Every structure is written in structure tokens, then in C-alpha cells.
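Case study.
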Amino acid sequence: MPFEFDEATSLAALGDGAYATPIHDRWDINGNANGGYLLAIVANAMRAESGRAHPVSVTMHYLSPGPAGDGMTTTKVMKSGKRFVTVSGTLAQGGRDIATALGVFGDIDSSIGPQSVTVDRIDIPPFEECPPRAAPPVPEGAPPMGLGSRLDMRIHPDDTGFARGEPTGEALCRGYFSFRDGRPVDTLSLLLAADAFPPVMFNRFGMFGWVPTVEFTVHVRGVPAPGPIACAFSSRVIQGGMWEEDGEMWDSEGQVVALSRQLALAPKVS
Amino acid sequence: MPFEFDEATSLAALGDGAYATPIHDRWDINGNANGGYLLAIVANAMRAESGRAHPVSVTMHYLSPGPAGDGMTTTKVMKSGKRFVTVSGTLAQGGRDIATALGVFGDIDSSIGPQSVTVDRIDIPPFEECPPRAAPPVPEGAPPMGLGSRLDMRIHPDDTGFARGEPTGEALCRGYFSFRDGRPVDTLSLLLAADAFPPVMFNRFGMFGWVPTVEFTVHVRGVPAPGPIACAFSSRVIQGGMWEEDGEMWDSEGQVVALSRQLALAPKVS
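After joint prediction, the assembly is written out as follows.
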């Protein structure tokens, strides 16, 4: 049996840089595919076209919600260099563009110097001591947990307030990312990890609806060692009806494996 | 007399989303146009095509060095929404692609809530008390200061070590950005500000050559009030032959006006 994530990001080359990349069911929030999942689908096609091993930096802009169903990603190699290949990719469904991306693909070896890492690994209890991201009591109109059914995510005990309707007041959410079916987290699935946690807005202002991502960038900085990925997400500038969410991801050996940032729309606070 | 930056980012519509966007002289480092300047050129064409006022989030991937000369930016509107217009743009010179970008354009009003800004404005002396970024003693093979001749940049007195060959050891550079000819800093020129400072690598490991940007994203979060822009750049994860540089920019009224991040190649440390 293939792992769920591999099935959900499978592709078939159609020639001329086009790939059939169906959007699978139950990788959604409220019926629309998770933004990190969409990025993983498109980046997988871009990576195939690049002929290189890993996504190094990928940026996606979201154009329309992506319900489960057919999908086609059209890619174009913008530059094929010695070290990196730069590729563009656009996912469409029934002729409508869902999301568009730019990315660079190549080898990643975090042991190459110079080395200077000054960001502290997040202070978080072991995986087993962090509560699972349970399906929260779903208020009327709130999203069902399609994506959550695929993942084994744990939330830092200090950051679970949002799920009880007791937001911590701080735009911070820490936890662990892993797949429920035991699939190892590789560089492609880090793109999903970077958008899978509850929006940190939920802990800052209380839980409310839809906070659509406008732009999402992930830098993959290491190939993860086996085990869950420790993640910290935060936002420092909520203003102008927008907010950024910064992500930091570490593997089980304490190596930084990804940095992410997205810009999203803020809901109106009543 | 028009301001230099306006002249250097001028464009002429050629129809079908194409714009003549020449690359002007003396916005370069070592003969190749500064990455922030290239982003400003391309974003200006993308903005024109969008019909909207401001760049909100723009990402550029760099493909080839861009010497001064002709240039043509080909843009395509990917989505025209009520709030934002998403546009792609690629700058070519003599048939060779120099850089490619994705961006979203629209209105920016930082006073719209919800409001929660937890990043502290940088601790920096007033503009007049910070030394100008002087043309440093240029070691053999080091870049001449084309870009510097256009700008009035000041460096935090504690962060000038790199220029004396006495790096501070910290991947941090703070200072002020303004134009020498008094042009106000608007949302377009924030894209230049975000890439105009000396690479923070110079303060971490000493001054050495070329640290080419692979990917560069700027989020514009406010329309600047008049006056110099206070900036802080830092890097936390230098590994794998790559490093990220994060930028924070404030206007004279203490408002966050932009956040930036780039991924760049690290030189080999001898």
C-alpha cells in the first residue's frame, strides 16, 4: 500500500511540461484543499520537470479555492543551471487557475559550511506528552477536519487554548507534524507541514473562520532525519487586514529543515 | 527634473502585457544591477498591468546577472480579484531571461484592524548620528559602489565593523534608507530598500565577495510616511551553502512598512 501523501501528490506526465495532478479528497479545510497540500502537488510536478531532487525555495500565490477533483499543472523551466533549476508551475482545474508558483530545485546538504545557526530550537515537551490536535468541538459553520484525518499532529500543551475557546492571546502555535500512516517526512512534505497547523490568529484573537493565504514561501534548509518535525509558527505584524505567519521547522536531530512565511487575510474581529 | 529612481524604473507599454523596462546604469553592484532594483523595475511593470496602486507581496527569482542596457518585462494577469490582482512578470534582455516574479497588487491601509504588532522597532540612533555608508576601502576585486551613489544610507554605529575589516561577528546590519536626491520612499522603492544594505554575512564572517540572491520576497505592510526608512537585516540560519536574510522596515512614524526575506548563496569561508 502506498502512503497516503504519495498517492495524493501522484502525477502523470502529459508532455510539454504538463502533468495530471488531481486534487485528492480529505486534504481540505472546509471543502477546499489545504494551501500546503496544493503547494506540494504543484512542487512535485515542478520538481519532476526540473529533474532535481529537492525543492529549495518555492513560492505560491493562491488564485481560487481548490476542491477535490481533476487538476493539471503546467510547468516551465525558466533556467537550468549547474546547481539549481528554476521552474514555474500553475495548477488549473476545469480551465480555472487554482494556484501559481515559482520555485528552485536542487540538492540540499545542510552540512556544507559556513555554519551559523542562531535560532533556538523550540522549547517543547516530547511528542508523546503533547496532546493530539483533536477534532475540536465544531462551532456552526466551522471547518470539518479533512486534513487532520491524514496527519498525527501534536500541539504544545501551552498553545491549545484556541481549541477550547480560550485563546492564549499570543499569535503562537508550536507542535509536531507527522503522518498518521507513518510516512516519513521528506523535503516535499515539509511544504505541507508549513501550512498544516491552526492559524496562529486563532490563539491571538480567538477562533474564527477563514483566513485565506495570499502568498506562501517555504525555504527547505535540510533533508529531515526520521521522526516527527517540531514546528513553531508565529505572527508579529497583524495590521492592514493582513498578517504574516512565520514558520520554523526542526527535525528529530535538532537540525533546521525549513523556514516558511505566508501573508494571509485577517478576518474582521467583532 | 525627475527623481533618479523614477527615471530608472520608467517603462513604456508595448501592448499585450509587455513593457520596455531598460536597466539603468549605476544601480549596480560590480556591474550587475542590484536585485532590489531589478525587482522594482519588474514590479513597476506588473503594477502598471494590474491597474492597482501598490505592490502587496512580490517574489523574484534571479536567473542571470543584469547589466545595464535594454530590458523588456513581459507580464500576465493571473487573477483580477476585487481586492487584489495577481500578476507574473519576467524581465529579459536580448532574449535572455534575467529575473522572473510573482506578485499581488492592491490597496494598502495599515490602519485597518485587527491590529497586533509585537516586533519592536529597531533601537537605532537618529539618522544624523549614524555614519553614511561610505565607499569602503575597496579591496582588489571588490564591488564599486554604483548603487551607493544613488542612495543616502546610514549604518548603525555598532554595525559598521564589516567596512573596516572588523566584522562584528553577528549577522546583523541596521541602518536608514533614503534617496540622495530627496525622492520620497514609496511602496515601490521599499523593494529596493529591502536589498540595498550590505549583506549581513559581511558582519558575521568578514567581508567577502559575491553572495547572489536566489529568491527574494517583500511584503509591503504600510505606505511610508515621509522620511528615511529605518531597517534591520539579520540571518539566523547559515547552513548548507545558503543563508536567509530577513528584513524589517519602519517609517518615520514607527509603522512597520515592509517585511522581507531572501535566500542567497553563501561564499566559501576560507
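Observations recorded in class. The first strand of chain A starts at residue 12 and ends at 15. Chain A has one domain: 4-107+130-265. We will return to this complex in the next lecture.
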